[in-house]
Amino acid sequence: MHKTKVVDHLILLFGVFIMMAPVVVAFMTSTHDALDVHLHGLQVTWGGHFTDTYHEMLTKKGGFTGEVTGARMVMNSFILGVGFAVGKIVLSMLAAYAIVYFRFRMGVIFFWMIFTTLLLPLEVRILPSYDVMTKLGLVNTYTGLIVPLLASATGTFFFRQFFKSVPDELLEAARIDGAGPFKFFIDILVPLSKTMIAAIFIIMFVYGWNQYLWPMLMTNEESFYTLVRGIKQILLVWVGSQIPEYNQAFALAILAMLPPVLIVVIFQSWFIKGLTESDK
Amino acid sequence: MKRVQFSSPYLPYLFLLPQMTVVFIFFYWPSVQAIQSSFYLEDPFGFGATFVGFDNYLEAFKSSHYQQIARFTVVFTILVTVFSLSIGLLLATTADTVIRGSGPYKTLLICVYAIAPPVAGLIGMMFFDQHIGPFVTMAAWFGWDMKVGIDYVDTAFAMIVVAVWKQIPYNFIFFLSGLQGIPVSVREAAAIDNRSRLGRFRTVTLPLLAPTAFFLLIINMTYSLFDTFGIIDVIVKDKAANNPITLVYKVYMDGFRGNDIGGSAAQSVILMLIVLLLTVFQFRFIERRVHYN
Fold it and tell me: What is the pLDDT of residue B291?
């Protein structure tokens, strides 16, 4: 019995090692200077150049046109993450409210039309989507970056599921007290959904922050680059220079993963609950 | 549905309007356009398009390059799915038996879930780098002259390693929550009946986990087909020349780099059909699972 426990811990430790070692090495290497990394390879110890590397990465004008800084990309990533999460919550709460709380003939049809969006991921319709965006003149805008990503049903399902679990008596009581659809929604349903809204917000923020393909198509002006979108281009420039700036490339990677990783770690239980219950 | 509902001639439409507008403009319009342009041959200089029927599809299926990419996509999908599922399952079953310290293990094992695929690709590229990559050094010990980005097999190897690494946490989360859903009484009964842990796992745990495993199988297949785009793009860096790529990446390359709009659209539609098939399969299964409960 005792022996198996040791083996269990060894397996888990090994698992933690393969999952975390690359992240730790990436961080440690980012604290060395470029020459050090160039000569001695990846690092597992603290290099003492943390502030230099990150300061330069955040403020140096990089990229091909030399007009985008790390700080700018951080800002764009936040705009995309927050914009997407808020947009998703507003659109899907309203839609779910209409579907669950109103009796109207088209309800089922609308439900299925929203539902169908789950069937086809963005990746299979990239070129026509891009075409549509050019026609609408939304290339290189924040609207074009955020709004098209809202065209999927995940949030609506979340809220539909949740609203259905809200007891009917609440609505009955509210109607006896003379509350109309707006009052019921704002004074009762929204406060009831607080935890739900928070859980969806963090899941959607991580999802938005981590978007790659869509920002890549929609933004070719570097001032609109998000961290995740900038990775490849910036990488080509930095690593292609005389002394490859691996340390800064790693610093960029660390910065790009930090907010989502922190969120997942801090809100772990919400996150797991939201994930395992929504995807089924 | 609710027993009591509001009824209003216009309010539900008002509430649905924002969502439906977005869905129509950014989902239905492009999807219809993809299907439509897959039947046309578009002039690369923008002078109109000619209807060519199924030519774009036939061309894709007949091209040996497309067939090669399709074969690679299948191999890639199978390997990524098998490895990330089995490692995730191993870690989840182990974490399920450990009581002390399972919290920190769990946290550390799921962290990587939050890392975007291209960022995972970047870290992977550094580990497989010609100058500083430890994996290249390690491979050299065994006489393997690893050249990621140049050699076809080596690049494929790096892609698979990164794709598996990124997907393990997801499978771990779902397997663990599946395991923790098995009632204590069932576990105890199994422990009395079967002393061997492996035997217990095979006869009791695995069948009970089957629905989770099936669900994950589909999810992992869609992940390998579509979500690995960022990993592949960072590793290949637009130079698809002699590098392995998946079908989705080919759609992107043909559409945006090669300007072959009809061909790219036809390939998109083929992928749509694959996803549809997978999804229908999944829903039918989930329906059946509901009956079991």
Answer: 44
